[in-house]
Amino acid sequence: MDVAILGATGLVGQMFVRLLENHPWFKIERLVASERSKGKKYKDIAEWPSGDIGEMEVEGLGDFLKDPDVDLVFSALPSSIAGEVEEKLAEKTPVFSNASSHRYEEDVPIIVPEVNGDQLKLIEVQQEQRGWEGFIVTNPNCSTAILVLSLKVLSEFELKKVNVVTMQAISGAGFKGLSALQIFDNVIPYIGKEEWKIENESRKILGLDFEISAVTTRVPVSHGHTEAVFVELGQDTTVEELRRAFESFDPLRDLKLPSYAKPIVYKEIPQPKLHRELGKGMSVTVGKLGKINEKMFKYVILGHNLVRGAAGGSILNAELTYRKKVI
Amino acid sequence: MDVAILGATGLVGQMFVRLLENHPWFKIERLVASERSKGKKYKDIAEWPSGDIGEMEVEGLGDFLKDPDVDLVFSALPSSIAGEVEEKLAEKTPVFSNASSHRYEEDVPIIVPEVNGDQLKLIEVQQEQRGWEGFIVTNPNCSTAILVLSLKVLSEFELKKVNVVTMQAISGAGFKGLSALQIFDNVIPYIGKEEWKIENESRKILGLDFEISAVTTRVPVSHGHTEAVFVELGQDTTVEELRRAFESFDPLRDLKLPSYAKPIVYKEIPQPKLHRELGKGMSVTVGKLGKINEKMFKYVILGHNLVRGAAGGSILNAELTYRKKVI
Amino acid sequence: MDVAILGATGLVGQMFVRLLENHPWFKIERLVASERSKGKKYKDIAEWPSGDIGEMEVEGLGDFLKDPDVDLVFSALPSSIAGEVEEKLAEKTPVFSNASSHRYEEDVPIIVPEVNGDQLKLIEVQQEQRGWEGFIVTNPNCSTAILVLSLKVLSEFELKKVNVVTMQAISGAGFKGLSALQIFDNVIPYIGKEEWKIENESRKILGLDFEISAVTTRVPVSHGHTEAVFVELGQDTTVEELRRAFESFDPLRDLKLPSYAKPIVYKEIPQPKLHRELGKGMSVTVGKLGKINEKMFKYVILGHNLVRGAAGGSILNAELTYRKKVI
Amino acid sequence: MDVAILGATGLVGQMFVRLLENHPWFKIERLVASERSKGKKYKDIAEWPSGDIGEMEVEGLGDFLKDPDVDLVFSALPSSIAGEVEEKLAEKTPVFSNASSHRYEEDVPIIVPEVNGDQLKLIEVQQEQRGWEGFIVTNPNCSTAILVLSLKVLSEFELKKVNVVTMQAISGAGFKGLSALQIFDNVIPYIGKEEWKIENESRKILGLDFEISAVTTRVPVSHGHTEAVFVELGQDTTVEELRRAFESFDPLRDLKLPSYAKPIVYKEIPQPKLHRELGKGMSVTVGKLGKINEKMFKYVILGHNLVRGAAGGSILNAELTYRKKVI
Q: Which parts of the sequence belong to the Semialdehyde dehydrogenase NAD-binding domain (chains A, B, C, D) (predicted)?
């Protein structure tokens, strides 16, 4: 299938390119970016080196929209322009979007395959209601994508309340998002709208109405979001039982998706520097699991914000959709 | 009053020196360290430059103990040796200790002047029970010293449950505590015994039996511990009322202690790089105060781990003790 | 004397404010910045906290130029606009500028007081030629300001050839100059025009025509430029003699200038973290002095790029000018 | 061929393991470390995760020496013990050593295959003189290994004088070599004996007696040494000609060595973060080439200190030796 990547020169866009470079199902046919990059070779504007794709010429978004003839679109557009562009494309073409623009619409699913792959059925509703041949499927915000994998496991024990503190990497803010003097030797406990996104996206993805509250911070780490979680369950359980549940969680194992990796790996002391690349960035790491009382537990989880938390998650969504023959 | 600083060459010891260099009440008479440093000039082993004190000669601990003739001892000894040494000294001399060795003994107070200065009355009990002329007063672990200032304010609203995640600075582990390759580009969610200390010291200092659970992490920040806190109160209140309570908290104002600073400063987005030096490191900064529901709130607090969290806290304890004429 | 600071909200502008806050001769009367900052309180746009000055209102540059009634102007304007603005102001008012716009004009001196204070005599030439009542005096580029202090000393031994490699701090690029992902875990051996500036400004300031070549790099350090220097002299000498020459260099000692500090301090291993604040940022540190052969030596020098290398240097220029009764 | 890795748990030792894990000629049979690690699984003591090798048990050095039955030894031992151990092993076995212990002995070659592969002929001399069946071949110090690749190219233009400033990565000091507080926000212009090593090893490897002087510094970069070089040549040339010479340098191209990569890559602005992994860490990057005058040039070079500068260089030495049928 021929695919286009929108916003191909941003950090998430570049990660889409890296992950799709040798993909067995999807072939990068078009690299689309802002007018500023139009006509340039990809290797001359991408920070990360790459192979053959580096020789491809980047198109302006305007030109692409005049003739968007591909089988599939991956969108890493900024939210400010993703809304309109993606809707237009979805009239004819499947769009897998990392933007937040459509996430909160009722007929647009936010998918994490291991958690709520069944909500791909919303595609049909969406096509009917909107009269589209294509559709929009979103993946969640990066912190949520990581967190909900663990919450899905915990939901077997009746999820009642979640308090989460994130320690998010610099790359989550984009290439120029944070100046060195701002974040160097610092922790910044403010990321715009992030708390709201974590709280609301988690509930939508899990389809459950539990209490959840987040404090989000930026730390001087290049890649990999770490999250410390306190959770209250409805059922008594033990650290051992929870650990087993985390380790045995593997709903996609038999689907043979190209981007598949074991979703959760357990390590005593999860650390971004050591574990963010596990499963090529698609595995999250859980650890420091502790019991507070019969029904309250704490743990730490981390994952690669640009892979599992963005481009990789979106590609896994497309793979699942393809496998289920929706496309 | 003539004072000795034990463990004068470590990070906390050096902070004691800096803070006492021009102190109006306490005069550094003796600098005591391990045998390795014995006989050297202070300026040749201290990382931080300093003035006249740099010319003083460092004594070995063994020599000091043979003739510990000072009015007051500040101890920045490692816990492994502080236990025995401090007990011996306390037979004759007041000891203000940053070590954890005696913190959990019933007749030894852990003091944060703004929170539980009244517990200095334990000194009398301690002297009677142990037959000492001197005594031991401790200050809490660095994360606790910062946190309890806010919990004291919240206790006016009936403290029921606290979940706290710390993001602690490198200097909390001592000068050689963390190698650059370990913590560079990393978050390490493990600090030995720290969670236990925070939970138990907080309850002892406040004299309250509330639920408290901590996850402690190390982040690549030089100085300043940041803590994200979720708290459940027994009484309904509002963000505005809590903020006012934080800002008006100032129990020591009228005591004219030399190290006094307003204990809590409110900033929208507290950050170690911008705020750790407020009040010369003695003020903690609270911010990001938010309401989760009627009785649940969240906020961020930070403070200088070597000043308010260690040497500065210990000196304030000595000042309060002196002001109250216990010494 | 009433002074205005132009470009008061940038990093150099803020350093001017800090250094002038309690200055005995100069009083900050006007804070001038771009239209964007106009009308705001200084404390609401400056990254660094400050005292009373924080309450002052910032003026737009346009408004200021309509009525620039002060005794002295310090300019931290970007070069792109400094040229024209400073010329206009200099018709009536002394301007001490950190911008590069006028540095290379024949009748504008680049002053480092300890090196070429006598070139203040160019002011008279400038006023005559241009028909101005005021004048423009510049300070050099930050790396040069640090380097030439040592080259002045070496010129006593006949300076023949200099090879210098700079390792420059992030703050030299301004608050937003470098994104965290660019410089984090990196060395970037490119700083636009910097090599040319070092080579040409050094020769102009010293008034000597020696060979000099620079390689300039950016390193992940917040403040403090470090420079490694190879130098060929015309006379034989020894490490000991050179060290004595560095340490005894102190031409301003008797002038009682408020910003005076010993210009050169010798330390075995100069390091930005330990030594950038020496002399309140006005002293540079020389060390690692070694002999290659009879006439070739190497050494390391470092200094605070925002103080000695920018605002502090400019203020020292104004103090010297005032002391010499030019103003 | 069955190989043993001595010092397998240090940073260089771990890099040997990584690079040999799927090597077509060499099979890791024995992992040898200090007594402290004896009997542990490799994965439990190595910071870097690895595959099957992680299950191997680590031997103590004492046990290994009793029965060192392998075809080849790679030594990443600390210099303090490498001297004696390597000599004993070399009686029977080829030893490729990253330690400096034997580098300066006349009959022990320091090899960089692209530069002086022909000096492998010293092996025969060594065996004869010492009565050994095995031998010792060393690779240079990390900074030298990178630098000499460029000096070899420049020697075609008659090398007269070199001034080099290194900006070396933290990992060059070993896992615990630098504490975070030492190097964080700092440049440290001191690395024990490094200047001497660069100067003397470069001359020995090139077999030329040119003037060379180094200043060595440590910078807060995880991996990748950057070096700024000033060079005086005996022949006139141009930047273009030098660049062509760098780019066309490729003496090993036709030997089909498993670790082969193009030795020198040219990039306008070489940076450790972007280029240290080129050629899987075996390529060095040259750039910022500039002309000072007819015969003086400057450039920047960087390479991966643990790969080209240590384990990778040593493995390439073994491959070349094997290809030339010395083993």
A: 2-123
How many whole angstroms from its chain centre is CA D44?
Answer: 27
Nearest CA in chain B to C276: B49
| Closest CB to D288 among C167, C215, C292 | C215
Residues B18/B20/B21/B23 CA torsion (nearest 10 deg): 140
Residue C309 φ/ψ, nearest 5 degrees: -85, -5
At residue B298, φ and ψ (nearest 5 deg) are -135, 150
List the single residue in C with minimal CA-CA distance to B275.
C49
Cα D169 to Cα C145, C229, D4: the distances in Å are 28, 20, 27
DSSP 8-state code for residue B60 = E
Closest partner residue to D298 (CB to CB) among C213, C273, C293 is: C213
Confidence of residue D48 (pLDDT cuts 50, 70, 90): low
Q: Which residues of B have a catalytic role annotated?
A: 142, 225
Q: What is the CATH T-level fold of the domain A142-305, as seen in this structure?
A: Dihydrodipicolinate Reductase; domain 2 (3.30.360)
**Strand A94-97 with A135-138, pairing:** parallel
d(CA A155, CA A141): 20
Which of A49, A185, A278 is facing D185, going by the closest CB pair?
A185
Three-state SS string over B186-214 comes to CCECCCCCHHHHHHHHHHHHHCCCCEEEE
CATH number of D2-140+311-323: 3.40.50.720
Q: Does D306 touch chain B (CB under 8 A)?
A: no
C114-129 pLDDT, tens per residue? 999 999 999 999 999 9
Please give the single-letter amino acid code of residue A107.
Answer: D
CA–CA separation, B315 vs B121, rounded Å?
A: 18
Distances (CA, A) of C20 to A61, B243, C319: 51, 34, 12
Q: Do D263 and D283 form a contact (C-beta atoms < 8 A)? A: yes
Contact residues on chain B for A189, CB-CB shorter than 8 A: 226, 228, 269-271, 287-288, 300
User: What is the secondary structure of C100-159 as a DSSP string?
Assistant: STTTTSTTS-B--HHHHGGGGGHHHHHHHHHT-SSEEEE---HHHHHHHHHHHHHHTT-E
pTM: 0.95
Could you tell me which residues come within 8 angstroms of residue D306 by beta carbon, excluding any fewer than 6 positions away? D11, D12, D15, D142, D171, D172, D223, D281, D312
Using CA atoms, how far apart are residues C190 and D274, in angstroms rounded to an integer?
14
Output the CA angle A236-A242-A248, nearest 5 degrees.
Answer: 140
Reply yes or no on domain D142-304 having CATH 1.10.3720.10.
Answer: no
Domain boundaries, chain D: 2-140+311-323, 142-304
Instruction: Tell me which residue has tokens 């003539």.
Output: B2
**CB count in 10 Å sphere of residue C128:** 10
Arithmetic mean of pLDDT over chain A: 96
Instruction: Output the pLDDT for position A52.
Output: 83
Q: Which residues of chain D neighbour A278 with C-beta distances below 8 Å?
A: 49
Residue range A246-304, pLDDT digits in tens: 999 999 999 999 999 999 999 999 999 999 999 999 999 999 999 999 999 999 999 99
How long is chain B? Answer: 327
Domain D2-140+311-323 identical in fold to domain D142-304: no
Q: In terms of CA atoms, which chain C residue is nearest residue D216? A: C228
Q: Which residues of A touch C219 (CB under 8 A)?
A: none
Which tokens belong to A28?
A: 């990068």
How far CA C290 is from CA of B23, C293, C296, C298, in Å, comes to 42, 9, 9, 5
3-state secondary structure at position A286:
strand
